[in-house]
Fold these 4 entries.
Entry 1:
Amino acid sequence: MARSVTIKTIAQDLGISHMTVSRALSNSPNVRSETRELIQKRAAELGYVRNAAASAMRGDTTRIVGLLIPNLVNEFYARFANALAILCEDNDLHLITHLTNDDAGRERLALMKLRELQTSAVIMVPAPSVETHSAHLFHGIKTVQFIRTQKLPFDADSIVIEDAQSIKDAVHHLAAKGHQKICYLGGHALLSSGRERKAAFIAAMETNGLPVRDALVQTAVPSFNMGAERASSILSGDIDASAIICGGFEISNGALDACLKADARIPDDLAFIGYGDPGFYRWIQGGITTISLPIETLAAQALELLTPKNAHLSTQQHAFATELILRNST
Amino acid sequence: MARSVTIKTIAQDLGISHMTVSRALSNSPNVRSETRELIQKRAAELGYVRNAAASAMRGDTTRIVGLLIPNLVNEFYARFANALAILCEDNDLHLITHLTNDDAGRERLALMKLRELQTSAVIMVPAPSVETHSAHLFHGIKTVQFIRTQKLPFDADSIVIEDAQSIKDAVHHLAAKGHQKICYLGGHALLSSGRERKAAFIAAMETNGLPVRDALVQTAVPSFNMGAERASSILSGDIDASAIICGGFEISNGALDACLKADARIPDDLAFIGYGDPGFYRWIQGGITTISLPIETLAAQALELLTPKNAHLSTQQHAFATELILRNST
DNA sequence: ATGAAAGCGCTAACAC
DNA sequence: GTGTTAGCGCTTTCAT
């Protein structure tokens, strides 16, 4: 394989100093425009591209952005990654994606790998964990937490979802339709989001004068299976409820799966309010009522926070409101 | 910000030569095990990570893999990217994803950026284009074409889908159910996949003694809208058919969308065979009969082809068979 | 306007 | 078993 073409290759080829080539290629004014054009032309012909490793070694920013998310199968994450990737293309950034599967160990490994590459910035959905990562792990990396907030060894900006109002809206909406036994399926109280959503649910139930029996507040480690199981319990009558409100992406998909597999009539047998808005929610059962998140906005904000110009002294928490989308499952 | 810790930092800290540190950290046998352990311990304490840029400059492989795909919204691509990302995690590879949106210009830019980073290998879904990229673009990059095959300035391995048999199976299946007017919705003949799928459809129709009117073979630039439009034409009666076979991911989703929006009764009004198997196909309308692709296998093969040990002299085309999954839409 | 030297972090190739 | 040197590609600093 022919050696790759460098500024020295070009310099030799043209019989000049590699310094002149360097200057020409970075459009320095200190080169005769004639020489510059000659050099640029030759560089293009030879297929020259600058070596990012050499740049990085000199301490220039690598323009590498790391994305740590649980997976790409969940449509919310996929859409977020998609939006972010487009923004990165447009801003000449390299996006490196690591799937953590919500595992703190994998997360640690991913961060180490990113650090090797002199990654400039990271956007992460932190894995649930009791341990706090060592501060070393983030050395030199501008970090933004996305969706969730974990205790980090330093202050980091974060982007969070403000969905309490949508959950209250969901309860009001169902109550207005005459539902009394509304069941909430959400993440457990170890997650701050879990606590807040649950609190919003309970508050709204009380506002509507509806009793909140324990069975109506189902929380656990959020997962597809958890959603499916609890929905099945409702359909089988083990849990007495006429409506479901989901408080998590996977939970929502799981609960929906169970309803569809059981051939439940929605909303007659069971009214259903999902969480997140995968494309097919619009289609199935005439449309699933759901809590939708402003994905593009979130991605734009994430990138915004990474740009150095945006350095602020205090750590900021950026909240974005969700929206209850009414369709035909309620 | 404190300077980042290097082997020299550690060497100074320990009052030894940076070379000994280097050896210790790469487990060279030429270090007293006592010294080695001391060094490794201190390195861990200081949060040392090796600098990939320095490595790259010395000519070591970067272990960076580029993935060029149209988008992450299409569930097939998302699942492929997910599977590949997991494999990369497990093989200590860095995965850089670029979205091309099927645009040759974006593709070119992405390749250039990857070349800057000394990317070792690329897996790409080539954008449809009449022009052939310059050979420079791929210099030093092991390339694998995925799903589609474009003419490249050199020989590259490729991974393709062998779906002709599934399309024939689809026709047989519908014919056995008594359908005579089966409409095929696929990509146009400029795509090799388009030609092959169409040929398979026609061949199978003839095998079953079914007439192939022009209107029953609908091909165009494949897209969601194309699928939606043609499906609508069928539902409205503009195209006279009792069954649809889709020959593309986006087409399939578009056609399905149109059917669901129109509240078509499936399979009574219209039998439907999709392409690809997004998770929700299992749910809606009691399950959509579809042509499913072995995604995990494809990803594994893609990575396999990138490993250097796998160097073969001749370019290979690796074909993977799809499977017709029978559900309740037919 | 152009060139020479130095150094970023790392390791192969040599000393010793 | 350990230390010294040189060089990967690039740009900043200092000549000329």
Entry 2:
Amino acid sequence: MSNPVRVRFAPSPTGFLHVGGARTALFNWLFARRHGGTFILRVEDTDAARNTAEAVQVIYSGLRWLGLDWDEGPLVGGNCGPYFQSERNAIYERYVEQLHAGGHLYDDGGALRFRSPRKKVTVHDAVCGSIEFDMSDPATHPDMTIRRPDGSWIFHFVNVVDDIEMKVSHVIRGEDHLSNAPKHVELYGALGVLPPVFAHIPLILKKDGKGKMSKRDEGSSVASYIAGGYVPEAVRNYLCLLGWSPKDNREKLSIEEVIPLFDLDRINRKNAAFDLEKCAWLNGEYLRELPEDRFVALGREALTRSGVSLSQFSESYVGAALATCRGKVRLLNELSAYGGFYFSDDFPLNAEAVAKHFTAENAPRFQAVRESLTALASFDVPSIETALKALAAQLGVKIVVLLHPLRLATTGSLAGPSMYHLLEVLGREKSLDRMDRAMPRFPTA
RNA sequence: GGCCCCAUCGACUAGCGGUUAGGUCAUAGCCCUCUCAAGGCUACAGCACGGGUUCGAUUCCCGUUGGGGUCGCCA
């Protein structure tokens, strides 16, 4: 590539960052990083009505969360600013003047329209190949509007102007823009500029493949991952796998591994259905390998989001509690259900499990477990484990027979962290209290 | 409907003329195990159809069907 690689992500501030948009941003970012190029963020806020500061923040926070840092754009500056279309009026005026002088524009009820040359246009696309569009019929390809009667600009025009002004070398965007490409090529022609390399990437479809993913669909918003207990690396990894693959059967790849492998000719042409299950699976993989301090930090956030109050617990208690939950959940948001018992004495006991395990036969065993725990010199994992195993042997039962009722009494559930570890974290006092509280649930006869 | 793109297990994909069509998610079973996960093993499951080209098509060409996109003074 002779020209420096300059790519851009050009979202409209709608207050919503779509996964499809995030994936487009990701591919642009990867391409820039792969070629030592520049990744530009440009905010296409020509539609003043729905343009708010909060909506722009949604874009920033979504990209930042995914680790997609931009080299030029809002907040970081650059030589081709401003990076908000709403602030680039003077530039657009200049280009309109140029088009006007070339006789390419005409007035239509106050709106400005671009007169199509009515020829065949070939779009050269790095992923789709060369595609010819016959633009000769105005019925199927009406002249595009460039400016509304109120003076505001239309997407096609400002998009092309900005790409020219910002020296964008490759336009990587969703395939839904493919049919816009010939219009844009006409504009480049009228402006006397060579078009950039286009790369229309496949769309992300709903889970059933019926249509583009839209606002209503689960997982369509980046914000939903931030709030939903996902790790950004996992979501980013999953997004890489939609329309691209390393071709060597790897699924879990760090972004550093993806960068050198990423290129436009490896991008698929087929739209991909979105599978939140697989994304969650990957999230579990990442969660499992997270350093403990980061897992604890993210776990705290997730618990707090779920409404679990952590303020009354020491940092070491919360850390130890969360450590026993490591590798056990796929989503951080599952933590409150999985380990919530650590932070509240007020949990219900699973009724079905109570019926099965709080039996008359188990009552004396439960009592024996309590005595064994009471008698322990020190209440730590090895001591607890040794004592309970010894007791099981002594009573001639398998250890589960002892552990099920114990787990039920101390956590309310039959599923949870390692029994010995959770008892140690809970501490003797709390453990015995919970056992005492459960005692009356056993049948007396 | 016009135009454009696409077509391998339910999903994401590998394959770029000769393969027992591979991997991953999901599903089922087994093993491991203090539960739940994780992990290991196994199973299930795919080249849309019809013509060509070729000694030979999942792979190349054409058509059909199917799916998606797009036809704004939205972006």
Entry 3:
Amino acid sequence: MGSEKGMALFLATFVNKVDKKGRVSVPATFRATLAPQTFAGVVAFRSFTAPCVEAGGIDWMERLSAGTDDLAAFSAEQDELTSLIFADSRQLPFDPEGRIILPEDLMAHAGITEAAAFVGKGKTFQIWEPAAAAAVQEELRQRAMKNRPTLALPKGGPA
Amino acid sequence: MGSEKGMALFLATFVNKVDKKGRVSVPATFRATLAPQTFAGVVAFRSFTAPCVEAGGIDWMERLSAGTDDLAAFSAEQDELTSLIFADSRQLPFDPEGRIILPEDLMAHAGITEAAAFVGKGKTFQIWEPAAAAAVQEELRQRAMKNRPTLALPKGGPA
DNA sequence: CCTGCACCCATTGACGCCCATAAAACACCA
DNA sequence: TGGTGTTTTATGGGCGTCAATGGGTGCAGG
């Protein structure tokens, strides 16, 4: 099993079924990258940029908290972000088989009914209605073929 | 073997068969350059510049992750890049014989059916349908003989 | 007593591991 | 230098294991 040290990335897209109880299996590879965390489960909240659920491990929340701490206390911006993120987020624990229960409002926000797409985003991931995820992905891909986006990389490594 | 100080590179082109299970042997020399990585396998995604599969080691992905971490969380730019890079990429682990399983959609995108060409690109490599790879190679070679491309090198090294 | 929700068990189908064979690169020796 | 034996690589197939899924059951709280 996964006792690697360096890698802790969420990669690829997996589509799993949602059963009548609202349970979904979190992909095994995602569970593996979540394994070292202190909370055995997923933290999730409704995205405010897309019809999907933002998700990650508990340490990611702590990182976000560190980010909002840098904003001025009582500023409108700080108030807004902390509400959007922390007030809306929940901890979804794994059951013994590695599934989580998707709350009603999260499913409604993403339009999820009978299947959910887990979309890897590196240090975090998103949960989508499968068809919507595919559509957005395809559109991004089309755009990329024209605009060839670039990314500045730290030097020294491979590629 | 294989613990040289200089970074190992992916060189040359190898054509291997794809069996009924979708398995392909990764060339032994490529496995050797991937050996020091934390994940025993390759990371691959559909190229958005050519009908082929882009591939490399996991540390290459981690480097890309470090790059996207410098972008603001929830920014459009960060969202697009992480989707493009991570959502479409897959971890393909080696089996005990050094083979990987090429997923259906990757094979479809590259037009691969019964054989795959592993094309070294230095710090990464590509996987092509053999005939397509040969055609593109030949065309590039023809063009190079006319245009005579040049390459500036960092100074201080050998040659 | 009824409704959840958390744990347990059963099924299945894919994938990972093992073997066995074959072909090729290499080393060694006459 | 050519032949021969050995090691590594490539390939094919069978089988066990685990992940994904569905359903049942017991405990807790209202």
Entry 4:
Amino acid sequence: MGIELDTKDRILAAARELFHGRSYADVGIKEICALAKVQKGSFYHFFPSKQILAMAVIDNMSDDWANGFVAEAFDEKLPPMERLDYMVDAVYYWQKAAKNVEGRMPGCLFGNLALEVSTRDEVIRARLNAVFEKASGRFHKALEQAVNLGDILPLDTQATATAMLAYLEGVILFAKARNDPEVIRSLGPAIKSIRIEVKHTS
Amino acid sequence: MGIELDTKDRILAAARELFHGRSYADVGIKEICALAKVQKGSFYHFFPSKQILAMAVIDNMSDDWANGFVAEAFDEKLPPMERLDYMVDAVYYWQKAAKNVEGRMPGCLFGNLALEVSTRDEVIRARLNAVFEKASGRFHKALEQAVNLGDILPLDTQATATAMLAYLEGVILFAKARNDPEVIRSLGPAIKSIRIEVKHTS
DNA sequence: GCTTGATTAGACCGATCGGTCTAGTATAAT
DNA sequence: ATTATACTAGACCGATCGGTCTAATCAAGC
């Protein structure tokens, strides 16, 4: 957490860390306040409810991702298909580092929340879905360029992009169940093998 | 639930339904008892803790799967690669039916639990991992046969089997986030495109 | 009939949950 | 100096959590 952040940001950072490291239901407001060194009064001044905090955490992490190593991985300067490997690598190193610190693989915050709360909270579910949609857009763009450059045979870029993101989430899930980041390294690169053919329009 | 079950089975069935439909943390013992029409005393007579109940639920569902449509899907009489399609189809129809009843896609109980509790409960995590391991064995066998029959080019059957299971989980996750079973139908069949080459031993 | 062990009923426990409320402080505009 | 507003502190709330405990009920064996 390091340098001085104002109260709201400290709450956000604490909640993000705790939600990601454990789960939504398992982390209470009290614990978030303790980690953020903030009192309950301050908390509810900035966030009217736990649900709204969750939304803020999702947006916050989504932004960090989008401007952080996702942006790096999907850098237009890289050959399109290499971006996928870059992305897998980034996820691998990230999860590995997290495990070294916490002892457990936290997995993907969005995937975690999606499975945990999307049957109970339609609003959060929709927000998470939007995050996935946006992420799959990156894959989509990369695939389109790969096709245009002739790096891969034509395929249904939209569907394949979604499938690739789903695969990445699945690999992270599996790695978390094994508590072993190496799973990401060994299974991850196969993301490039996934293909959904263009729908036959005759 | 239907026909008379003895107390323990009623508890198990109720817990399974509730855990699957919502989440582990969100469902309390009281609610399980209410659905099972059982009192707390009886509950704790059969299950010493919620954690142990969770394990029993996992085992119970794992058995049902293994002897139910997973056994059907991976029937040795089917051509190996067709088993994968069968499996995807089964998941699709199951989730669709569940959504029609409950209004929401429950996803995969094992995947849900894996992401929710595996950072908190090492014992449950290990159990879930064993379930995944067993399931990936089915894929493995099918792939080995497919290679032997010349239906597909040789590949790392072990790693690819795991990757395929991970993909399936990822697709279910994505479908749950969208609350749309059709995702399974459109992305699922691409499971057959996943390939991990045999490690180059020179 | 009596005893025993398995099962059920449900009151009860301390802890914790998300959230509210009031009192007070800090800051800045007037 | 006064007043409005933003923020902080933390006691407090009813509800619910997982789990315990005692008393009652039941069927089987003797």
